Each structure stands twice: as C-alpha cells, then as structure tokens.
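== Folding task for one protein ==

=== Format: two labelled lines per protein ===

==== Paired sequence and structure tokens ====
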Amino acid sequence: MGSKNSTVTKRADARRSIEAIVQAAAECLGQTPEASLSEIARAAGVGRVTLYAHFSSRAEVVDAAMSRAIDRGNQVLDTIDLTGDPRLALARYIEAGWYLVDQARALLVAAQRELSAGRIQELHAGPAARVEALVDRGRAEGAFRTDLPIVWMVTVLHTVMHSAADEIRAGRLTSDRAADHITTTVLAAFTPPGTPVPETGGGARP
C-alpha cells in the first residue's frame, strides 16, 4: 500500500514540476527568446536535473511552452462569435487574435529557432482551420474574393497580425489602434475586385 501511495505521490510531483517548467518557459521565453534552460529551471523553482528528467532538449521545452500558449489562445478564440456577416466576424476574430499574437511574439521567435517549420505549422493548425472556415464561408456568400487561394488569404491575415505586433514594439503603433489597422488592411485585401471596401468599427484613422 505504501509503495502504491509513493508512486502516486511521485507522479503528482512530476506533473507539478512539468507544469511549473512549462509555465516558466512560456513566461521566460515570452520576455526573452534567448532565455536559457538554467533561467527557466530557476524560474520554475526546480534544478536542471529535474528539468532534464522531463525534457531531453531545449526544443522540447520550447515545444511544450508553444503548445501551452496555443491551447490557451484556442480557448479564447473558441469564445469568439464567427457567425453572421463574415466581414464583421472577421473583425471580431482579428480583435481577439492579434492580441494573442502580440503576447506570444517573443515565444514564437524562440519556436522558429528551435522547431521545424512543419512543427510550427502543426501547432497552429487549430487557429488556421478556424479562420480558413470563416474565409471559405465569406467566399461562398460573396463577401470575400475567390481569385486567391484560401491558404494564401489566411497567411496574409496572420502576416499582417505579426507585423502589427512588430510595429507596437517599435513604437510606431499603439495597442488600441492595432485591431482597426489590421481589420481595415485585411478587409481591403479580402474584398472582391471592383467591390467597395466595407467599413467595420472605427477603421484605420489617420
């Protein structure tokens, strides 16, 4: 009986250590993409030996931190109403999505250094599928252009979001204006040729 309880306790301790390491990795890498495993272990309150007992490499730690950030991001995106007018739904998606991108920007830099492009694409499959479905519906309803591949249109959306995060860090854009700038830019890119670009919300004011 004692042995069984000991095993359960060890497993619980291991789970706590893993969660602490992943949380610390997300926080450390979210501030500094070059954060070392020693810094991450220290922030997690564990030793390097404990960290290496659960993760065999820096890439594994980064992968776990990125997975955690995307899982949490998906929980936020799950609450966004993507029904109704596709253009207004896109504006709602952008308002929530760009903020998640901004928060995870430094973490993504670390992921791009440690993980393959295929793995990063795999991790982003959830958000990508969500917006691909929205763009597909918008095309079917005549709100979005059909002369460009959906995958390309989604790539443009996410590229503009990442650019907004860069502009905020460079001091050339403020957080309260970012969603309007992104939405106005993306709607202009998605609107069928020859069709007036719709206005949603405040738009990008000069």
Summary: Residues 202-206 have pLDDT under 50 and may be disordered. The chain has ten helices and no strands.
